[in-house]
Structure formats: structure tokens, C-alpha cells
Design a protein that fits this description.
This protein has 3 helices and 3 strands; from the N terminus they run αβαβαβ. The chain has 126 residues and is α/β, with parallel strands linked by helices. It is globular.
Length: 126
């Protein structure tokens, strides 16, 4: 990660490697370490911003492919947090999934940012 994303590697990768040096055997070690597809009890919606500087759409597709049943919803927004760049389309996806138990179509795409990233509105006179 440090080679491909040097600006965010210290934040997202290096601190997680600290415990890799611990000499402790895991109690609940998974039997299958192939990291193939994971069968879940419920449906999963993977949500990803297309302009995310730290997590690519390809990575989100990979996550969605590992969990069955799951779909990928793309948000046409920049930033690292899809919920922070919410729009009416995403609100519809959230409502449909969490309230009506309706799974969106795989590859469903939302756009038209309703709220600015992280809720901070930059004034036009700035």
C-alpha cells in the first residue's frame, strides 16, 4: 500500500501492522484461508464514491464480488465517505434497502450531490 497510495498508507495501513509482530496464536483462526466468496445470511449493499481518493471502484467491485448476495451502488461524488456526500438518489437507495427491504440493481449509479462533503458548505463569495 505504501507504494501505490503513499499519502494515505500511514493512516490506513501502517498502524494495523503493529499487531502482526505479536507472538500470539489466534484462538478463532478461520479454517479456510482462501479468502474466496463469503456466503452471508442477508443481502449486502456495497456503496462507493467514484471519486474516492483512498478506495477505488475496482476495490468496491472486489468486495461486492466476495459477499453473496450483494450489489454495488456507485455514487458520482468525490470524497471518502459516501454517506457524507448524500443525495436524493442515495436517500432512495437507503430507504428502499433499510425500510422496504428492496435490493437495488447491481451497478446502480447515483449522482447530483445534495449535501456537500462532510456537511460543510463553502460560500460562493469565498
Amino acid at each position: 500500500m505504501t507504494d501505490s497510495a503513499a499519502s494515505v498508507a500511514p493512516i490506513f495501513a501502517d498502524w494495523r501492522l503493529v499487531c502482526s509482530k505479536w507472538k500470539i496464536d489466534p484462538i478463532n483462526k478461520p479454517e479456510d484461508s482462501s479468502f474466496g466468496a463469503v456466503k452471508t445470511r442477508g443481502e449486502i449493499v456495497v456503496l462507493s464514491d467514484v471519486g474516492d481518493p483512498a478506495s477505488s471502484i475496482q476495490g468496491a467491485k472486489g468486495v461486492a464480488a466476495r459477499f453473496k448476495p450483494s450489489v454495488l451502488v456507485k455514487n458520482l461524488a468525490a470524497g471518502y465517505t459516501s454517506f457524507a456526500a448524500a443525495n436524493n438518489c442515495l436517500f432512495g437507495v437507503f430507504y428502499g434497502f433499510f425500510v422496504l427491504s428492496q435490493m437495488p440493481e447491481d451497478g446502480y449509479t447515483c449522482g447530483e450531490v445534495f449535501a456537500p462533503a462532510f456537511g460543510v458548505q463553502i460560500l460562493s463569495s469565498f
